[in-house]
Amino acid sequence: MGQRQPGDVQDGKNIYVVEFWATWCPPCLTSIPHLTELQKKFNDKGVVIIGVSDETAEKVKPFVEKRGDAMNYTVALDDGRKTSERYLQAYGQGGIPTAFIVGRDRKVLWVGQPMGGLDEAIQQVDEGKYDQAAAAKQDEHRVNLREYQQAAAKGDAKVAELGQRLLADCGDNPDALCELAFAIVATPSPARDFGLADRALDKASAAGADKAKIKSTRAISRFESGRQEEGLALAREAVGEASSDPDKARYQSYVSVMERRIKAVGEKPVQP
After folding, report:
1. CA–CA separation, 217 vs 198, rounded Å?
2. Range of the domain at 124
3. Residue 61: CA atoms inside 13 Å, Cβ hemisphere, count?
4. What is the pLDDT of residues 206-244, one digit of tens each?
5. Same domain for 154 and 231
6. 87-114: burial string, b at 16+ Cβ within 10 Å, e else
7. Domain-embedded: residue 241
8. Residues 6+ away with beta carbon under 8 Å from 214
9. Exposure on the CB side of residue 122, measured as CA atoms within 13 A
């Protein structure tokens, strides 16, 4: 199943991106145009993107066909969840969308969210510049982030200590700081530490992080902390300042969610 057939698949010469998704998953739908763009960009480099769903063919096939060229990469079905066991479960990944980069030597080199650095990682793997030691450190950071999110969701008393430790561990790494801030504001919890998220974003800004990325995360922070109109305005600004189409699409999805939530409670959205 799929909208494209890889033109030149040769053993030992291809880089594979194995992405787990589902038709019912909103973040997965946001990732689809990004993956299509990546397949087009890296097609001549021997990169093959495969989207794997554990849903039925009756569910997935019409979904893929409806999108046509907007979902222009290979799509496969996970029979009996065997592929999920070998990737998601083996690498301790509990959510989707999650993508894996498999190098030309058939080793998994990168694991993460499709919208979170996948394109840069593919580029580095293709050029032989991928730093596995740095990636291992980043993986450790993400494990700690998941621990923080789980503690926050449960209202665990240790969440404040974990947050401060994570902030210190991020140092001046702008990507890690933005990832921390997003993890804080996007984790449903009555005790979300919006102040910690702001401190992380301030440090990220000083370290030269992408301005639209910072603004989009701060938008969520404002919105979730009760300052809905300010959050919506910041999200709209982030859309206008986005440096790539995938980023623009992601930030626009934030705007859409915020507008729906404001409308649901009968509040008037701010005008652009």
Report:
1. 9
2. 15-130
3. 4
4. 999 999 999 999 999 999 999 999 999 999 999 999 988
5. yes
6. bbeeeebeebbbbbbbbbeeeebbbbbb
7. yes
8. 178, 201, 204, 205
9. 28
- Note the pLDDT tens digit of each residue in 120-152: 889 999 888 877 777 767 777 777 887 888 888
Mean pLDDT for the stretch of residues 172-192: 85
Q: Quick count: other Cβ atoms within 10 Å of Cβ 263?
A: 11
pLDDT of residue 183: 85
In a domain, 270, yes or no: no
The one-letter amino acid at 214: I
Please give the structure tokens belonging to residue 25: 């998953």
Q: What is the pLDDT of residue 270?
A: 45
Residue 29: give its domain's CATH number. Answer: 3.40.30.10
Determine contact, residues 221/194, Cβ cutoff 8 Å. Answer: yes
Tokens of 203: 């440090």
* C-beta neighbour count of 115 within 10 angstroms: 18
Give the pLDDT confidence of 3-59 residue by residue, as tens digits: 544 444 455 689 999 999 999 998 889 889 999 999 999 999 999 999 999 999 999
Q: Tell me the two tokens of residue 61.
A: 């096939």
**Residues in CB range of 264: below 8 A, 6 or more apart:** none
CA 169, CA 147: separation in Å to the nearest integer?
14
Q: Which two tokens stand for residue 86?
A: 């070998």
Packing angle, helices 132-154 and 174-185, rounded to 10: 20
Helix count and strand count (H, E) for the chain:
11, 5
Strands 15-20 and 47-53, by their bridges, are parallel
User: At 50, is the secondary structure helix, strand, or coil?
Assistant: strand
